[in-house]
């Protein structure tokens, strides 16, 4: 802020309503300020305020080495989501098609597992309406550990306990079905939330499930939660925006169990994804812009105008990734990293359509598609 006498005058005139007091105070204040400026040598034409400091916060490097893998023999292979257990155990889910020995037909896979050296393809059985089972595409994955992993097809919630797969819920009660699942969040293996198309929210709790009505038919693509360390209460956040209607819903719902509430979202912008620091002190939102809330309301995070973000994920306030797309020319995919101080984009990752991102420590996974084949990129921070 530029320091000027005229600026001080305007501020003081707002402070004092009594004319006599105002004039008297202004007389002495202006005299004091004039002497201060003359004897201290303050240059009123330049901003004397120092640049903001980082307050001692740790930063991480933007320096990543990338490995790109193409999976599938075409036929619309694609990966939708990923989960990182550790550097030598990573899961990616979707639909992967491999030609059989005749080269005339395809074998269907829906999971790829990284063992530190290569990707192995798996078939996980799931259910469709009418009790039909098959190796249908998996749309999402959420992992607590290597022996507690949850998968979801469009409607079937499946758990891997380290030895076997179990169908825990089937959401398609009738056809046609328009509540297909697109994201999972878990508090523990007895409390799972699934969200998806047409405002679908499903709560799985202690072996039973129910649908939660948010009063909207807008598609939902993310869900995230945090636990209050003092009370032990977990709140689950569901960002909802109707991208087909400029005047449609733009809201972040808050769920406590099956109780529906909401939190303040006064930006007027579409919101697609939410994530927060492990201690719950800061919450981030992504959509038509990036936003940060440290308990005092939403602040805009500077980024290129015309970028729409689909997902924000991290594991600390100095290790956050976002994925999105520029909706103004050149219309390229955007992958960017925040290291606690600055944002950095990776244009080398803009050559495919991305669907999901996972972050853990120095490892990031980005999955998607290129042409008719699935793509998975492993990024490792070098320092």
Structure write-up:
The chain is mostly beta strands and 383 residues long. It folds into two domains: 5-40, no CATH class; 64-381, Methylamine Dehydrogenase, Chain H. It contains two helices and 30 strands. The chain has helices at residues 5-15, 19-40, and strands spanning 64-71, 78-86, 89-99, 106-114, 119-122, 126-128, 132-134, 140-145, 148-152, 156-160, 165-170, 181-188, 191-196, 201-205, 208-211, 224-227, 234-241, 250-256, 259-263, 271-276, 283-287, 289-293, 298-301, 307-316, 319-326, 333-338, 343-345, 353-360, 363-370, 373-381. The strands form eight sheets. A four-stranded antiparallel beta sheet has the order 1-30-29-28, with no helix packed on it. A four-stranded antiparallel beta sheet has the order 2-3-4-5, with no helix packed on it. Strand 2 (78-86) and strand 3 (89-99) form a beta hairpin. Helix 1 (5-15) runs antiparallel to helix 2. The longest helix has 22 residues, at 19-40. The model is unreliable at 1-56 (pLDDT under 50).
Using DSSP, what is the number of strands? 30
> Which oligomerization state do the chains in this entry correspond to?
single chain
Please give the CATH architecture of the largest domain: 7 Propeller
Task: Report the β-strand fraction as a percent range.
Answer: over 45%
CATH evolutionary superfamily of the largest domain:
YVTN repeat-like/Quinoprotein amine dehydrogenase
How do the strands line up in the largest sheet?
1-30-29-28
Query: Helix amount, in percent?
Result: under 10%
Number of domains: 2
Q: What structural class should be given to the helix and strand makeup?
A: mainly beta
Sum up the overall morphology in one term.
Answer: globular
Mean pLDDT: 86
According to CATH, the fold-level topology of the largest domain is Methylamine Dehydrogenase, Chain H
The radius of gyration computed from the alpha-carbon positions, rounded to a whole number of angstroms, is 26 Å
Distance between the termini: 37 Å
CATH class of the largest domain: Mainly Beta
Largest sheet, described in full? 4 strands, antiparallel
Low-confidence stretches: 1-56
- Helix segment count? 2
